[in-house]
């Protein structure tokens, strides 16, 4: 673990999570498609078939390379810095909380739909993104092909707006519904674990 912490510059959990997400997703997409089918989150069948573990495992598979790349890029852009700031234990708690809350939100909305199924790490990653913004409200990031820095809060708003639109369109198996609950989970986590950071961010964002 010490070696991994050194290689990741103090963010071993983020490094392990990113590697697990990428490798598991690639395996499901190109080597063992059954891996995806077995780990889809199916809210209607969660209790009926006792598929409770899919609340976690569905967050390590993705629908296609574009879905994986966007989630992986967002995680890479924010998770490593956040872990160094709040510590590895806090980061693991945040990620787990985001994953479970976003899965629970999906279950509440779709628990009466036998045919609904979804996948993706988006809920947990949105928890990381919004927790990062609360801790660093003035931060910006660079995106490929865009020469100007994008303020992190603007990136987050655009991400959520897209999620709402995509959820209404209900396209594919990407769990867009988890984005909103994941984002809320990130804000709630910081408010509970570091209320001073939450108050500072609120004051700065509110002007």
Automatic annotation (TrEMBL):
Source domain of life: Bacteria
GO cellular component: membrane
Keywords: Hydrolase, Membrane, Transmembrane, Transmembrane helix
Pfam families: Rhomboid (PF01694)
Membrane topology classification: Multi-pass membrane protein
Keyword Zinc: no
Gene3D superfamilies: Rhomboid-like
Domain (Peptidase S54 rhomboid) ranges: 51-190
Compartment(s) of residence: Membrane
Signal peptide: none
Molecular function, one GO term: serine-type endopeptidase activity
Spans through the membrane: 12-32, 53-79, 85-108, 115-136, 142-162
Cross-referenced PANTHER family: PRESENILIN-ASSOCIATED RHOMBOID-LIKE PROTEIN, MITOCHONDRIAL, RHOMBOID PROTEASE
Family in the record: Belongs to the peptidase S54 family.
Record-given protein name: Rhomboid family protein
